[in-house]
From TrEMBL:
It comes from the Bacteria. This is 3-hydroxyisobutyrate dehydrogenase. It comes from Halomonas korlensis. Residues 7-165 form the 6-phosphogluconate dehydrogenase NADP-binding domain. Pfam families: NAD_binding_11, NAD_binding_2. The keyword Oxidoreductase applies. Keywords: NAD, Oxidoreductase. The active site is at 174. Residues 171-286 form the 3-hydroxyisobutyrate dehydrogenase-like NAD-binding domain.
Amino acid sequence: MTTTSRVAWVGLGKLGLPMAARIVGAGHVVQGFDLSAQRMGLAEAVGIRAYADLASAIEGCTLVFVSIPDDKALLGLTLDSGDLIEKMAPGSVLIETSTVSIEASARVAAAANKRGVAYLRSPVSGNPVAAESGTLSAMVSGPRDALEQAIPVMQSFTKAQYWLGEDEQARFAKLAINLMIAVSAGMMGEALAMARKGNIGWDAMLELMADSAVGSPMVKYKALPLKERDFTSTFSAAQMAKDLDLILGCAHGAGVPVPLAAQMREAYASLIGTGYGEDDYIATVHHTERLSGLAALQSAPRG
């Protein structure tokens, strides 16, 4: 047990709930809040103390974690109707784990600074499975002393915490990583379509990719569901499109040309437009197959 025994968690979605549950498992009291009654029920089932209002959920908590879907939700929660920052006690720490824009994050930082709240931008890399196993990676920027205060709790759901600077560095880092993931998904789609055209067995090509020089953790992780032609979403094509919009905005604002990001944004727009927006982001595979005139595989061919 650490000196921090009670924390708040706001936003109990696909990532937020398993992260908060890990904190409970580490022996801390977690006070939770979510707008969804269903998510609140799931939270109570894993030992989180669910509160019907935001102010009660954060009461007495020095550390307040947030996991929400986008800029609109972040600004609504922290600055607008939710008014989270004004409800937080001066001297407390706000740890925001989502993927949002530089501009929205900077607005929250200004409000937190005015209130006397330390603001840690702490987006995480990983999926719900990694959240459940406590193997997410956190990219963190903000006050270093606030991170030191939060690390004993963050270690329950992350394998590493990378402090990158005092300002918005973590936001840039998260968007840069997601750019690499999106482009990798496009690359896998094209490579697998080429392999099918060359009459290479589906399983054989996936195994080769995973064992090759480009066999990144992402490639290895996606090889298993791809063998089964399972496109059930861990992070959807629509979510990746949202992140690519953030990436394009960030890069253009910084004067960085990102033609690969623009190309992948169009690919995901095509997936969404043809009804596959809720498929996993690796649906670039079946998207490229269709563009290549390849018939959909109902099950993995052996060869």
